[in-house]
């Protein structure tokens, strides 16, 4: 049974997939326009609000995200809608492990502290009637798009026969195939009446190391793929004048921290949910030009064995 969903950030990574998934499940989808609409008014008559807002390039999180949070909570209070919030792994800091809803949130970076405070605001609002579902995920895999870390950095030079690793290539990390996240959000929304006022639901997605990604990509392409290291030293040099470089350096620890998200709670809540297989998710992310013979025949770039860490 469907309903009406208001999607914030409908043109963004989360928003686009949420719009498609809710529409495909028979929901009425409203796309919020920040330039034209009032959020409280736009939420009237809605059953669910998907908060897909996220300032690009980490821009001014400390000021923008708290304001957005207050606005979304106000819209939920006025409309009675359930809020679905895409959570991330920043809250957990740099302690390796399998992170679940019971894992202590001990952020070690400023952006993690901001996310923790925002979730605390939603938890407090839930106690006063704004049901909130945090669907927490790792780094995005967004098929056919070029705005993710996977596309912009990791697979950027795949047509030249190499992947770029931002940390220890043996370290497993959590990743989220966005069409799967959106399907899970729809399924949680459909059973929201059975859920608690505040639910923290880890979305396990896929966890893999760069070595595992290298092996899978090489298998799919039918040829060897090299690994090269990301030049963090360039981020250091660019930090004074480039906001994204400055913000990325703060999150470098995540590429050296082995972690994955537990799938136990999601499996309890959504026993019928079936994620896209790892091989299919990676296939959807490989750029078309990389499926042609490598243009790196002249040996451009260096292998992992000859690179040094930045």
UniProtKB/TrEMBL annotation:
Region (Disordered) location: 284-310
Classification via Pfam families: Epimerase (PF01370)
Entry superkingdom: Bacteria
Bias-annotated ranges (Polar residues): 300-310
Domain called NAD-dependent epimerase/dehydratase: residue spans: 5-194
SUPFAM superfamilies for this protein: NAD(P)-binding Rossmann-fold domains
Name of the featured protein: NAD dependent epimerase/dehydratase family protein
Species, as recorded: Pseudoruegeria aquimaris
């Amino acid at each position: 049974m469907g309903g009406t969903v208001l999607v914030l950030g409908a043109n963004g990574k989360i928003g686009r997939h949420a719009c498609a998934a809710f529409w495909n499940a028979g929901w009425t989808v409203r796309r919020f326009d920040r330039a034209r609409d009032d959020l409280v008014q736009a939420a009237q008559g809605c059953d669910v609000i998907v908060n897909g807002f996220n300032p690009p390039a980490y821009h001014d999180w400390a000021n923008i995200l708290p304001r957005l949070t207050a606005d979304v909570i106000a819209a939920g209070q006025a409309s009675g809608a359930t809020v679905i919030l895409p959570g991330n792994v920043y809250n957990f800091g740099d302690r390796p492990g399998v992170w679940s809803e019971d894992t202590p949130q001990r952020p070690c970076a400023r952006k993690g502290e901001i996310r923790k405070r925002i979730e605390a605001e939603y938890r407090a609002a839930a106690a006063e009637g704004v049901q909130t579902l945090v669907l927490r995920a790792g780094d995005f895999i967004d098929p056919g798009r070029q705005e993710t870390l996977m596309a912009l950095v990791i697979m950027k030079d795949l047509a030249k026969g190499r992947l770029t690793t931002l940390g220890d290539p043996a370290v497993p990390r959590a990743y989220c195939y966005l069409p799967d996240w959106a399907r899970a959000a729809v399924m949680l929304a459909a059973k929201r009446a059975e859920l608690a006022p505040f639910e923290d639901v880890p979305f396990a997605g896929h966890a893999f190391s760069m070595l595992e990604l290298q092996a899978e990509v090489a298998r799919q392409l039918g040829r060897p793929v090299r690994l090269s290291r990301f030049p963090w030293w360039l981020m250091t040099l660019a930090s004074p004048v480039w906001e994204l470089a400055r913000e990325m350096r703060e999150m470098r620890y995540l590429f050296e921290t082995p972690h994955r998200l537990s799938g136990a709670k999601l499996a309890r809540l959504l026993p019928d949910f079936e994620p896209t297989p790892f091989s299919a998710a990676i296939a959807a992310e490989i750029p078309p030009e990389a499926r042609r013979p490598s243009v790196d025949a002249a040996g451009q770039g260096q292998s992992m064995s000859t690179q040094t860490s930045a």
